[in-house]
Amino acid sequence: MATTDAAGADGWSGTRLTLDLWHPNCWAIEATSRTDGGVLAHAIYNSPRTDADAPNSVNGLFTAFADTNDEVEALLDAIRDSDRAGNLLELQERFGRARDAPGNVVREFFLEYDPADMVCPTLLEHGFVHSAPVRIEGGREEWQVCFVGERTEIREALDAVQADSGAEVTVESMSSSGYAGQTPREQRLDTLTPTQRDVYEHARDAGYYEWPRQASTRELADDMGVSKTTLLEHLRKAESKLLDP
Predict the structure, then answer these.
(1) What is the pLDDT of residues 151-199, one digit of tens each?
(2) Taking a C-beta distance cutoff of 8 angstroms, is the pair 54, 208 a contact?
(3) 156 CB-contact burial (10 Å; exposed 0-12 / middle 13-18 / buried 19+)
(4) Are 59 and 3 in contact (CB under 8 A)?
């Protein structure tokens, strides 16, 4: 489900995609489908084993996030209760915020689990290299990936991923890594996640950026069916990317 961060993925000359993904036997998908909040998957590493007969496992670095402490606690409890999750070790609170996780409350943790439950090796096998932490919410995973083959091969590669892993995969967005033929504005919009783009474009269409403002953040949040805190989180990240020189 998670893998090491793909350093240097911005240098690939392939196609960027945002994938909405579900796959079986995933503790994070199961836990987030039953609770509020979500998980960011940062990296994995092999667990050192002194006993040759010990079961195979990996350890992953993750961040749990939600709007309240109670929601994060409920999410962590659901992860601990999962038959597919091993030992969970929480880290100091400051690490989660340093990783720019969404939500008002963040908790970073290590977790041991079975590498056979991961979908990342299947994605890599078929040419999809992830370029950002995987985000899991509401029983779904969001993958930011770069496809290293020809654009015309993407559909066949995705079909192979689904056949090999039992996953359900939907392409949420697709763009050229090289930004060929795009205006600077289009290039910046392509850096937004689908949710960030939806929030930003709704705010713009509703007159949020006009003077005087035609809509408040509370009204925007109500329109989109999210909390004001969640809307501001997405909107500020979108604005940061769009204003980055």
Answers:
(1) 889 999 999 999 999 999 999 888 765 544 556 666 677 677 778 888 9
(2) no
(3) exposed
(4) no
